[in-house]
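Annotated sample (chain length 98).
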Amino acid sequence: NDKYKCEHCNQHQDSTKKLSLIRLPEVMTLHIKRFRFDSYFGHMQGGSKISDHVDFPLNDLDMGQFCKTTEGQPAPKSTIYDLLAVVEHRGAYHGGHY
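Output written by the structure step:
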């Protein structure tokens, strides 16, 4: 159960996490979280590796939709990135190699 407790209605609700960027770097590093940690009343119960396929473009990744526009700030010169490298974890939650 990964639902968050709403502070207004006191019920557990589905939620969406969103990240907005103010400035884009010249070189961007993305870390896709591939592990799930399970807890029950704050005590660690273990974890698991998420092995779902991730589809990622090799060229022309447009990060424009993740940019926050701020009044008085210039728009980014470019929001397009090309993939240069991939580091992949081989193994399970409790061990493996990158």
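Annotation: The chain has a mean pLDDT of 79.
Annotation: Residues 61 and 81 are 5 Å apart (CA to CA).
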